[in-house]
Amino acid sequence: MLLSHYQELLTEAGCDEAGRGCLAGPVFAAAVILPAGFRHPMLNDSKQMKAADRDKLRGIIETEAVCYAVASVDNVEIDKINILKASFKAMHLALEKLQQQPGFILVDGNRFYAYGSTPHACIVQGDGKYASIAAASVLAKTYRDEYMQQLHATYPHFGWDVNKGYPTKLHREAIRAFGDTPYHRKSFRLLPEQLELDL
Fold first, then answer.
1. CA 68, 64, 69: angle at the middle one, nearest 5?
2. 67, 112, 125, 127: least CB-packed within 10 angstroms?
3. Helix (H) or strand (E) segment spanning residue 30
4. Do residues 87 and 30 touch, judged by C-beta distance below 8 A?
5. How far is it, in rounded angstroms, from Cα 82 to Cα 191?
6. Which residues 6+ apart lie within 8 Å of 123 measured at CB?
């Protein structure tokens, strides 16, 4: 059972990102303020959910949240500032876009750059513990998946409709065969080191 809040004095926003471990595409982040006591039986860590359930929940979260926002940082900036900083920047951008600013921020993970003077708590595996973080994880994941699905139409060889830019065997074989694209993260190891000798 997900907890509805971490503390009771201040309005809480949950924050999470999607796409940190990908070889291609932006990192997306979402910030969500849920109404007090919000519950939904399907809501869980987005990685544990079926895509169809995430899509259904996205509509419910967008309708019932007090407010929500989604933001992204592209692969070019990821290469410039590194993926960790890019993830925090995407979260900050999402928080800035909220119609109501929170008094407290719940962040999935063990690190975060302070957002102004707003207090925050980092919760390891928070998307499986707190409803607002789980809701943010659903939005970040569904928005990112949708974006990668659109890119797939232009770059069908890489299987982004299925792998969403993560380093699957098919994705890496396509990079080997076709090279990278303007959406690949050049600072990431796109191909594993060649261990076998070509004889």
1. 10
2. 125
3. strand 27-33
4. no
5. 18
6. 6, 106, 107, 108, 109, 129, 130, 133
Task: Give me the helices (H) in the chain, please.
Answer: 51-64, 75-81, 83-97, 131-154, 160-163, 169-178
Backbone region of residue 46 per phi and psi (left: phi > 0; alpha: psi in -120 to 50; beta: other values)? alpha
Q: Can you tell me the distance from the alpha carbon of 148 to that of 131, in angstroms, rounded to the nearest whole number?
A: 26
Strand partners, 157: none
15's enclosing H/E stretch is: strand 12-18
Annotated binding site for a divalent metal cation: 16-17, 108
The whole-angstrom distance between residue 114's C-alpha and the CA centroid of its chain comes to 18
Q: Which of 23, 45, 55 is nearest to 132 (CA)?
A: 45
Distance CA(107)–CA(123), nearest Å, equals: 6
The neighbour count for residue 21, using CB atoms within 10 Å, is 11
Tens digit of pLDDT for each residue in 106-143? Answer: 999 999 999 999 999 999 999 999 999 999 999 999 99
How far is 56 from 36, CA to CA, in rounded Å? 21
Residues 6 or more apart whose Cβ sits within 8 Å of residue 193: none
Nearest to 144 by CA among 43, 20, 49: 20
Determine the pLDDT at residue 199: 44
Average pLDDT for the chain: 94
For residue 47, give the DSSP letter: G
Map out the domains of the chain with their CATH numbers: 12-178 (3.30.420.10)
